[in-house]
Each structure stands twice: as structure tokens, then as C-alpha cells.
Amino acid sequence: MSEKHLQTGDVLPPYSGKLRVFAMRFCPYAERTVLTLNAKNIPYDLVFINLDQKPEWIFNFSPKGTVPALEYEPGKALFDSNIINVYLDEKYPEIPLQASDPLRRAQDKILVESFAPAQSAYYTAAFNAQALEPSMVETYHKGLEGLQKELETRSTKYLHGDEPGWVDYTLWPFLERFEALPLIGKAEFAIDKTKYERLVTYIEAMKNVPAVKSYFLAAETHAKFIESRAKGDANYNMLDTSAVCCMRPRKKKE
């Protein structure tokens, strides 16, 4: 699979008949859908999009040009990771990822919502050059503390249970990126094992989950992308080895 991100003027690759995900390699929301597909062993194709120079055809699949978008039939697509992932779990029930108990499903959704402020704090810390407000750091750690408390309360290896599920694959992409913050000079966002022992154990376990491992990027890689984006020149193709020798496809002449 090429890691190249298609951009304005690039031709839409032909549809293979598999589900097709339009994504950006460093987008945590797109990663949620990739992990869901991986966990459920559903065949799919990936098309990466340059979000600064979007190809014209992405708006046929996602009205705002956001990712992820899931093409489930030729020319027909869903967008928004939460909508896509619930659809996938219900459409392909062989490996269920949502909790079977309605109350636990509701609790999982509440947990995801309550973690959102920590995610917002991450974006501010990563891409805002201005000095951070102490309240932003507090919000971030409050999210981590809440997640650790939930892990302790549930007393299971993963939030879903003995195996990871929807709630784990929804939260994980941000935890993966959180580890990059100290590498870009944001030491106050470090996940200290002495304070977050249960959470760190969970993070290390998630890294070894097959669905995660096949798409995982190290903190150093995320840090490099964050730095490039913060400078205003996001290096979308930093992982694409084919970009060195291959020219991007051009728009057909009329």
C-alpha cells in the first residue's frame, strides 16, 4: 500500500469492489475507522488525501472534504468516524465491537464524550504556537485521570473487556499521539508512569493488539508530522517511499 496522499489534480483510483476508506495517514479520526476494519477482518482499500490541497473528487464522498469517508458502493459513501464505525459493526456483526449490554454501550459513549476535552487540549498543545494556559494542561490531565479511573473500575485488560472493542479503538488514536507531545517540548503533557501506572499498562497492551500494531506509528514519527504541520507545511508524504521515484498521476487532458 502506498502512503502517498493524493491532492488537487490527481485522478481518483478505480474502485476495486472492496470497501474504500478515504483517510489521512496522521488523522486520529480516520485511524478509528481503519482500526475498526482491521479488528473486524473486513477487506478494504485505503486512499490517502492531502487535506491542504484536496482532490476535487473527495467532495463527492464527504461534503466538507473531511476524513474519514467510507465508500460502501461505487460512488456512495458515509462520513464521520462514529457514524461509519457503528455502521460497520452492525453491518458486519461476526466480530462485534460494541458492548452487548445497552447500559455498557451508553457508558462507553459517555466515556468517549468525557475524553473529548483532553483531545482538544492535545490539538492546542500540538499546533498552537502561543503559550498554553495552565487550565489547558489541567484539562488534559483530568482526561487522563478519568480514563485511568475507569480502567481501574472496570478491572479488565481493555475498556471493552478481555479483548478491545469499539470504545478502545475510538480512544486509542489520541493516546497514540499523546506520547509525541513531550518530544516537541511539551513536557507537562507527559504520561508519567508513576502517576498513570494503570493507564501506561493499558497503552502498552493496546500497542500489541494486531488491529493497532499494523497501523501504529511511533511517537517520534507523530512528532515529526506535528512539527511540519505547525510550521505550515504538513509533510503528508513523509512515509511514502514511492514518492522518491514515482510521479503522481496527473489529471487526464480534456
From TrEMBL:
Keywords in alphabetical order: Oxidoreductase
Stretches assigned to the GST C-terminal domain: 101-234
Keyword Lyase in annotation: no
Entry annotated with the keyword Hydrolase: no
GO biological process, alphabetically ordered: glutathione metabolic process
Residues covered by the GST N-terminal domain: 17-96
Gene Ontology cellular-component annotations: cytoplasm
Family annotation (InterPro entries): Glutathione-S-Trfase_C-like, Glutathione-S-Trfase_C_sf, Glutathione_S-Trfase, Glutathione_S-Trfase_N, GST_omega, GST_Omega/HSP26, Thioredoxin-like_sf
Gene3D superfamilies: 1.20.1050.10, Glutaredoxin
Record GO terms (molecular function): glutathione dehydrogenase (ascorbate) activity; glutathione transferase activity
Protein name per UniProt: Pyrimidodiazepine synthase-like
Source organism of the structure: Bombyx mandarina (Wild silk moth)
Lineage, uppermost ranks: Eukaryota, Metazoa, Ecdysozoa, Arthropoda, Hexapoda
